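Work Package 3 (structural annotation) set out to generate three-dimensional models for the target panel prioritized at the project kickoff. During this period the team completed the workflow that converts sequence records into discrete structure tokens, so that structures can be stored uniformly alongside our sequence database. As a representative example, we reproduce one entry of 657 residues exactly as it appears in the project archive.
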Amino acid sequence: MSQATEVDHVPPPIETRSGSYLYYVRTRDGGEQLYCRRPAAAAGGEQIIMDPRVLEAKHGYTLQNLLVSDSHRLIGCRATRCGSTHAGAESGSLLVFSLDSSGKTELVETLEGVFNFSFGGGDSVFYTVLNDKLRAHKVCWHQVGQLQSSDVNVYVESDDECFVDITRTKDKQFHLINSSTLDSSEVRILPTRANGTPPPDAAPWADLQLLRPRQRGVEYFVDHHTGEFVILTNSPPDDQQSSPVTEPLPFRLVRAPSALPTSPDWTELLYMPQGAGHIEDVEIFRDYIMVSAKRQGRPEVIVHNRMTQESASLPLPHGECGVVRPEPNPQYDTALVRIGFNSPVHLNSVVEYDMRAMQPSQLWVPTPSHIDPSRYAICHENAASGGVQIPLTLVHHRDVGLSAAPPTLIRVYGSYGVSLEPEFRPEDVPLLQRGWAIALAHVRGGGDLGREWYASGKGRNKANAIRDLLACTRHLLERGWSAPERLAITGVSAGGLVVGAALNMSPEYYRAAALHVPFTDPLTAMLDPDLPLTGVETAEWGNPAASAADYAAMREYAPYDNIREAAALHNGPSILVTAGGQDQRVSIWQPAKWVARLRSRGGYSAAVPAGERSQAKLLFVPRMEDGHFHADNDDGGSVAAYSLRNAFLISEVTGEE
């Protein structure tokens, strides 16, 4: 797995211009990253502005992310303390360093309890703070050099469902405060002040302006340039705000003059006709708009020329078989755009396109040492689930035909409108090299086919995601492309819920299952308002404490409440469950409870001799220092965790030692 990302050819660092400097990240021997810059007007002159190794050795922090101020005189580093007993905590410290013209840095101050941040005008910082429910609930303003205790609350959100974030428009003219739930948002704009401080004769932040009040079912995302706001939204075209929007509407692009940005003054700029696909992201430039879209779950990048009002699609390097992600494109007065690509068998690469010619102008493509993409096939299938066609992506070595029923791993997620992308995953490479097939089940509840697809698999419709997974499984089995004794399944977090529920319904389909931080006891969690994120999560799962219908729907599929005596009947799979002791999203008691009930009621109570394959196993591996996400610990972090998963799957499915 460690070899999967080794390359024979390393492309040069990708430089991004900001002011009079070119900023970039390069990798030194040993694989560690260095954050650098050089003057744009001269060759050479590299300045290493942040070395994570020095940050750790000198100051005792592990770097999470880094920003440079508009003046290029300050660096902000969001970091966590090394060796902290709360390594899984999601807020951390903000270290502010001075930066001189030679690239020399010096620690100026440290702010505690910071979740996200953005530099303001002058030597000022906006940052968000988590409350005890892990909800970013307020935005604070800090003047560098002053005590943190004197910081000003710019905005405080009292709604328990809302999560607050602070960002910046592309032209740096405005800060944006987004207060959003899982299915709604409202944005307030704040003009950037040159010196960073509010006018002395005005109430602080009195010019904070709301663009559109929050409305259930309506989301919008904002940027600004050249005298107008550009807004991606799924709001009703008639701007009706009197009641929740229950039918999912497609996203469209609208515009509004800077002087009149509120929603009555929004006018249509760009949309995708019904059935033509859906917009996922937008990148604006002075003369162009780049739209990242999906058609039937396949990626497409459309460039709209604002001068000619014509639109065309860019040629993608991996066609329909990869993942497309916009790279940082901070300059809007340019015709060049950088886009990142990868696929299950292609490493991350970057292509710079000239939007005038609609062709690549520069490439940053690594050459992998241990993977020949031409030797692997990526194909697309559809599985029937109650009259609905569920997309299924299959990846396998060309020397191993699907008709040979190779060992297969199904991956699923199906929540929060998040698409299950066919992306490069190092943990899959050892399986593919051993002749396994990887199957991605794009079930409802994800965002693979747009907002309607998401809505049909959330809340009271969550059981659709589980049925879709089982339909994809049957599709493989009925075509002879796999067999129950050679089929494994995996899911993380909310994907673990889908896997756990599927194991309750049809355990005989699978030989092995691997679940990481699985959300296996949703009913207990959503009935407890004191747990972190319960209020925020009601839009996704429902509110069983207030709605009998929500309770009944959740009770129908909740993995913990529907365990069967599968293993006792000799048709249950072996199961690996991993969890993090510092997990603040899925508390460790959830998977621990589920494992305990599987052992007491599910037929997994008997001890299994070493090397025994005929009897189903249940392994619970808690890593008490980990949070919700695999950490990069001294033992290799995610590599160690996924190596354990792969060893378990290979041993159980193929019998290899």
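Residues 638-654 form the longest helix (17 residues).
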